[in-house]
Write the structure tokens for this entry.
Amino acid sequence: MMGVLDRTGTILRRTAIQVLPTMVGIIILCFFLLQLVPGDVADVLAGESGSATAETMAALRARIGLDQPVLTQLVTYLTNLAQLDLGRSARFNLPVTQLIAERLPGTLLLMLSALSMALVFGVLFGWIMAVFAGRWPDRLLQVLVLVFYSTPGFWIGLMAIVLFSVKLGWLPSNGSMTVGVTLSGWDLIADRAKYLLLPSLAMASFFIAVYARLTRAAMLEVQGQDFMRTAAAKGLHPAVIQFRHALRNALIPVTTMVGLHLGNLLGGAVVVETVYGWPGMGRLALEAVLGRDFNLLLGVLLLSSLLVIVTNAAIDLLHGWLDPRIEAH
Amino acid sequence: MAPLLEVQDLVIGFPQAEIVHGIDFHIDPGETLALVGESGCGKSITALGLIRLLPQGAAIRRGRVLFEGMDLATASPRQMRDIRGKRISLILQEPMTALNPVLTIGRQIAEVLRRHEPISAAAAERRVVELLDLVGIVEPQRRYHDFPHNFSGGMRQRVMIAMAVACNPRLVIADEPTTALDVTIQAQVLDLLDGLRRQLGMAVLLITHDLGVVAQWADRVTVMYAGRIAEQAPVGAFFAAPRHPYARGLLGASVGHEEEAHYTTRRLAEIPGSVASAAGLPGCPFETRCPEAIPACGIRPPALEPVAAGHRVACVVEAARTGANHAAAHG
Amino acid sequence: MDGSTSAAPAPAAITTPLRPAVRGRMVRAALRNPSLMIGVLILLAVIVVAILAPLLFPGDPQDMVADPTLWPGEDPQYPLGTDSLGRDVAAGLAYGARVSLLMGLAAAVIGLVIGIAVGATGGFFGGWVDNVLVRLTELFQTVPTFLLVIVIVAIGEPSAPVIAWAIGLAAWPGVARLVRAQFRSLRETDFVMAARALGYSAPRIILREIMPSALAPIIVATSVLMANAILTEAGLSFLNMGDPNLMSWGSMIGDGRALLRTEWYLTALPGAAIAITVLSLNLVGDGLNDVLNPRSGQA
């Protein structure tokens, strides 16, 4: 038998081994994709200032290194990356690492909050649906879940603004914190939570539906298993049986899917951050695309992919804890 | 001696169909009663009905299950939970799926102890290790923390047995406990169960379709056919002279209970037809397959009539024959 | 958002090639399946509106036709009101249906073709080919999907074909995983072994022997794929990265957002149109899953 520590170690090692080729793969993929983009940052900056000459643009390209052959650019980028240098953003004229470091906490917070919300409500709804399978709580939640499954998250976010911010005035509709006041302790947490609630809901809604459907199916499948009858034959209370024996088994297929959906979840941040004016990497990526700022875009792509890999490792750990049959290999 | 468990006129059904059509039997303290029949005859449903763990949709429609002064057919869910695992426990057929794959076996055994006894976690763990030792698992201290998938099939069934006897129950219901196991392991597991029965003074309801198992480990046998009891007898009398035509057919179809009747030396006798042909018949369910059927068989299901001490059979023809013998003897 | 979502059936679910008798039973099961029937009816209604849009609303939906920000019901000639530029919302919704359906379909087909090609190749051949393709699939699943779509759209110009390609390119990994799992389990079956023994070529075995058996889950995945493609397209045009020449539901939401606090119907109506269309596709997907895959059906 493999100890928990062994398993943790193996998963972390596997993640570390996986990170490098994935990163290089993404860089190469993106580098060549980005070469196909018509126009570069010099064009955009020139267009904005309206007074650029051919010489100043050439000088700008030379400064950024855009006049070099693609392969040279790629090698330079990889060399810099090895020293944890993501290059400079031509548009903001700041190091990319600095720009990303400013935005990373916002996106991280939003992603974790949305993921938790999706898991908690998804599993809860799925569980309730399975317990009441075929009866009205099940049917009611099935309709709700299907609506969440079919509705764009950003639109749910906009409608939530109309309801909770405009009509009811309960929650703020823009930003990530109250500006101009100094808060501490619980007030600070309450303030942040208020700002976090609606964006998380918008980002999570689709995934609440996905996990609710998965949990319902898995819970129904578990009900027919022999070990559920064994548990009942021990004289356990039905609630204990459901919680201790059914839920944990049902969560195994759910966590498998969570890993596959992380990229989608994080992608949703681009739109949701725009809707709520949330200072995160999603909006940074959008600005980078519109400004043809490739160093910045590549940095955001890399960091968000890294975020997916790391979160995936955390989910793997959870998965390994849930399902001891999976010996990490 | 008062029976440990007495079933009276038990009827179990799904909404669309009745599965068990009013059966009577009893289990004495400390004995092994074998419940025998083909798959689909209602023996497993009967066993699950006794502790009210029927599959979704199935329910007890009528009858009584008397156990320690209580009718389990009408007991409250709470009362049933206090009985399950403590007074009556259950061993299922397939030990791989009967154990929760994501919990350690130690925890799964401790769970039943802690449910029924005021015992600390540490004391429960010590008891579990003793139990694992009792059922013949080597290095019980270490295996406590193992998961079901770390065990072989036979070992898993030993774990199930440890779980079943943990609270020293009066009755263990074993639903085909060795069907899923290797033939060489079967005898070991049944020996273990039988030894524990003697040691702990429990009764065992052994559900099986294997007459070899019945011959070797049961005290009495109850044969079920299509949701009814066909014959009830002490094991010796049953194998010496089965009275129901179905039971005779079964013995013809079964090998291993007599030395000379090995499958290499004797053809397996098959009973023509199938259990399904019993559906919707007004009379004896075995009529369509019975070589001795007479017109009277088709009128109503035959009642279970005593033919000798502790030996009862549900067959019009047999009852008439016995009656004639009695008449001859007395007349 | 790709097709790897919950509607993807268990890989173990292998169906045999459809025989006429089986097909007849399936048609009857389909007619009795309420979610499939409701989904098909809604979808047909949306398709009819999309086809009839030029007849119902002659003229360019981008034209200003009336006073701006008329609320729904305020002017009977414009039952769903007008937007901030005085454009007819009803006309916009009708033309938007064409864009959403066509983009969804095109992206789904692209994602499906790539996914099937990658999944079938990897699943059938195994070995290092499979290894490389699995790595590639994982790579695409690691990059946040929507970011990838944005980058690809930025590479081309925001025209309808480019957007369809971008969404399809981001959506294929889910299909590839599904198809690969199907192929891996079917590869070992007797009828495939027999075909190999007869010396049939790999493409023939893939197309004639395995594909028909792997079809059911792929059909189910297609409707989910299309549903998700419509959602992605909506997000893209909401961010003003859609085709500027087309009236799309997502861009209508984006336009309406500026007036969210007062004229919230401008946001609500196109969003509802998206939700209803995607809902119908998901209903069809769920229904098909029940019909084609009865064992996986939920109680």
Remarks:
- Chain A touches chain C through 59 residues (CB under 8 Å).
- The two ends of chain A are 13 Å apart (CA to CA).
- The longest helix of chain A spans residues 185-223.
